[in-house]
Amino acid sequence: MKEIAKRVLIGITGSISAYKTPLLVRELIKNGIEVRVAMTPTATRFVSPLTLENLTRHPVAVDMFDERIQNDGSWHVHLSHWCDAMLIAPCSATTLAKLSSGNCDNTVTALAMSLPEKTPLLVSPAMDTEMWLHPATQRNVRSIEQDGALVIEPEEGELASGLYGPGRLPEIDALTSHVLKLLNRMELISQNEEMMRTVDAALQQPVYDLQEGVDHDAFDAELELQHLKESLPISEQLRGRVVLITAGPTREKIDDVRYISNHSSGKMGYALAEIARDAGAEVVLISGPVDLPEPDGIRFESVESAQEMLQAVQVHWTDADVGIFAAAVADYTPVAPANGKIKKSDEEVEFVLKKTADILAWAGENKGNKAVIGFALEAENGLENAKAKLEKKNADMIVLNMVNQPQSGFGGDHNTITLVGKHGEQSFDPMMKTQCARLILAAAGELLGSSKST
After folding, report:
1. Would the pTM count as exceeding 0.70?
2. 11: alpha, beta or left? (left if phi > 0; alpha if psi -120 to 50)
3. What is the pLDDT of residues 427-443, one digit of tens each?
4. Is 262 tagged catalytic?
5. CB atoms closer than 10 angstroms to residue 151
6. Domains of the chain (ranges plus CATH)?
7. Of the listed 103, 106, 140, 262, which one is catalytic?
8. Smallest Cα–Cα separation from 251: which of 350, 330, 352?
9. What is the pLDDT of residues 193-210, one digit of tens each?
10. How far is the C-alpha of 95 from the C-alpha of 113, rounded, in Å?
């Protein structure tokens, strides 16, 4: 299989938000990506090329005729073919106009115009609100999107002008997430295409030996074909299936301004939803409150409390083929939440709590032929507790992670998981949550395949 794409070209243009790009470059490098940088001359007024050269260990392309970047006389062609994706961040209004019209009079636009057809271009505009909302800018955005560019919408917030509105460059973790998701999607597509080429080649092989009338040869051929089907990527196992996923925390109301919740970021569930979608599944994502953008191309439902999440699951359960319950549902909720705001006083305040709805248990009781996958976050006796949960909740698999281990649990982009099933368990080293999602979905595909065969 082709290895995951790991080479990204960053273009920086003249915007005050260019000061963020060294942090973006550093974060991408921390995620194992090799980065090269090109800058417009105006961009150098906001961030030093020397800083970026020290971070990337490569010359920064500013002057199109800089001898350090020349490569057989066609540096821009070689560099644009070197990268697996290009991100222009920040992208000024001027650069948007140049990309729209095909004007390549600087290093950034020359590289963007030289990208091979299948190399994606990400564009993250950043400018003042009036410039962003101007009809010419919006027209240019639509134009480059029609040409195939992927535009990251600017965020709303306080701007360098002192005004408030849309136009801010997204934060570093958001930009990094966009790049990593794109590269992971490219890897999945590449692996699927390679696998299908292998399948096509195998099916086109001569089968003269099957005509020889020898029973064991026919049996071997059938066994090989079955093995070939079972080795298909997760897209073939999940294609056309309905995958229901819960994600994020729930909030249990104390009063109108306070609630019981936890630190779940929702990243694991959202990664599962996006990769299942890319694998050809019809995805239903039921999410508690998180600071993540709603994924495209799925059925999305936002909820607050555990009871609301259970009701949403019940609505969609009939159509589902598999349920993956990645949400961190609060275990308890106040019996009598207050209206308004409870005033602070010197006296102690007592609350009576009751257990929340057990969504995984409900799914296990009502699963029929569906596959049910739950999660377990444990502090101690993890494997023992996960096995007990597997049995008690009538689940088919439990994804175990430990709260007291590095790169595990809530918040971060990595996780350390153990897949616990009825026939054993398998532990994995720390990895990106997107990679964890692929392992979980591959296991879900196997569960669906085994249920179909029986």
Report:
1. no
2. beta
3. 888 888 888 998 999 99
4. yes
5. 16
6. 7-181 (3.40.50.1950), 236-453 (3.40.50.10300)
7. 262
8. 330
9. 555 555 455 545 554 444
10. 12
